[in-house]
Amino acid sequence: MFPLRDTQPSYSKPIVTVLLIVVNLLVFLFELSLDPYTRNAFIFTYGMVPDHFTVSTVFTSMFLHAGWFHVLGNMWFLWIFGDNIEDILGHGKFLLFYLLCGVAAAMAQFFFDPFSRVPMVGASGAIAGVMGAYMVKFPRSRIVTFVFVFVFFTTVDIPAWAMLIYWFVLQLVGGFDSITASMYSRGGGTAFLAHVGGFVTGIALVYLLGTRRPYYRRRDLSW
Q1: I need a surface site. Which of 18, 49, 136, 166 has the fewest CB within 10 A?
Q2: What is the CATH number of the domain that holds 83?
């Protein structure tokens, strides 16, 4: 399954969402401009390596990506879900929310795998927080989703709560598997536990930060 768009309109311009997408893409293009040796050094310097933990890399790692599929997939999910959360929080709170979710995601990965020497990179932890907030604030919004059924491709409308819970369960299962795998190897892979940490943090933060006063007018349209 791959989400194409949501049915929940946004009532303000997603300035921060667009800015985050632009910054992530520019950083990735800079990565591509480097030769392979320099690129690896750059990622090890600014990615978060749990075994050599520094506070600064918790933030810089959010803007690094490992490849085109990684960065474009993350930015697509941010575009679909980010505008609505920015709409209800406001621009300033949304930026704070995004960064805090990214920090929580990185710390979750660090807590469960503190001796890893593989740099963790990507915006997916912060975006997982956006998805968690979307699930609790717009549960009945519909997600137009591209699906493959046997030999056919089609689109279906899936309730946001169902799709996002399904996604979260996949990350949780992947996280348990990664804990087991880390006992036997130091290889890289998807930071599932960062996704779990970001998602849960997003649910909590969207309530702690509070939404804008006109939010009741823009709630889930199916309510």
Answers
A1: 166
A2: 1.20.1540.10
